[in-house]
Every structure is written in C-alpha cells, then in structure tokens.
Amino acid sequence: MRFPKIPVLAAAAALGLLTACASTGPAEQPGASSGSGTSAPSSAVPTPLDSRSESPSAAASSPRPGSDAAENDVAGTIVRFTSDDARVDVTIDQDTPAVRDFLSMLPLTLDVEELSGREKIAYLPRELDVVGTPGSDPEDGDLIYYTPWGNLGFYYDASGIEYSDQTLHLGTYDATLDQLNRLEGAGVTIEIAH
C-alpha cells in the first residue's frame, strides 16, 4: 500500500515548525537570565509574556507586599507551665533556632524536679536544634536549655554561674520560689498561652 506524499510532507513540516518554536532557549527569551543552567519546563502552548501569571511556588517564596520579616518573630510569645498547684509564664525574649524548635514541640507534658538548690529542671523528649543559638550568662528568672543534658531549667539562684556556650537562654519568668516549688512534680503542661 502506498501513502499519499502530500499529507505526510505537510505533517512533517508542521512538526518541524512546532519543534523550532518550542526550542527557543532561555537566552533567546526576553527577560530570561542564564542563572544556574536549569529551567522550568516550557508550556506546550506559547503564551505572551504580559499574560503569564506568577507561578504558585514563586508567589509562596516571594514576600507579600507590605510584609515584614518581624511578623514571624517569636519574641514576645508567652509559654505557660501549669501544674495542679501553680502556673508560671515565661516570656520568650529572643528569636533563635533553639527557641523556635522548643516552641514547635508544644504542647508538652513533662516532670519538673529540683536540681542543686539553684534551678527547677525538666527533660525534653528530644534534643533541640541549637545550631546558630548563642550561649548565655544565666541570671535568676531565666528559662534556659542546657545542651549536654537536654533539659530546660528555671534558674532561681544563678550566683556564681558564668557564661557558657552550653547554656542557651530561651526566655524569662517572673515567679517566686514558692511558685516554682508548687510547679515541681509530674504532669506539668507546657503550652503557648493564647
């Protein structure tokens, strides 16, 4: 059987034209940059530049008009520690990787215990991400994270304790020793106060 030559030639010519149109590379397109050498897949149907809409991934990664990075700052967040007999609020006063990781774990229920007549401590279920978080010189009223043991600590007698890269400041609290003593025990709930 013999195929007619004209329809086959017309189809080949149309395919050649479509291939030529689709092969326009990034360097040939107006406004394209040579960047990393990778490019997004091109659309099968060409669209005029002024009718293209921003891709969902570009919209998600670009800042919204009028937005400010400070909107996402966690400083000022109140974390509430509650037992049957007491409530202690901690104010997060800096934005660090360790603070953000701690907040991402909440709500939690932990046991709080006394340590050495200086602090009340509670062991977290896992280590915090501390990369990029500076050490601190703890003071009375500080909630800290102690990296070697993976515990939180409410300092109420930090006298003689100096700066350490292993003691990370998370926030501050304003509670009496009596309130901290009543917080001590099993089943202390830790959550962001709303």
UniProtKB/TrEMBL annotation:
<feature type="domain" description="Cyclophilin-like">
    <location>
        <begin position="82"/>
        <end position="190"/>
    </location>
</feature>
<keyword id="KW-0732">Signal</keyword>
<feature type="signal peptide">
    <location>
        <begin position="1"/>
        <end position="22"/>
    </location>
</feature>
<protein>
    <recommendedName>
        <fullName>Cyclophilin-like domain-containing protein</fullName>
    </recommendedName>
</protein>
<dbReference type="Pfam" id="PF18050">
    <property type="entry name" value="Cyclophil_like2"/>
</dbReference>
<feature type="region of interest" description="Disordered">
    <location>
        <begin position="23"/>
        <end position="73"/>
    </location>
</feature>
<dbReference type="InterPro" id="IPR029000">
    <property type="entry name" value="Cyclophilin-like_dom_sf"/>
</dbReference>
<dbReference type="InterPro" id="IPR041183">
    <property type="entry name" value="Cyclophilin-like"/>
</dbReference>
<feature type="compositionally biased region" description="Low complexity">
    <location>
        <begin position="30"/>
        <end position="69"/>
    </location>
</feature>
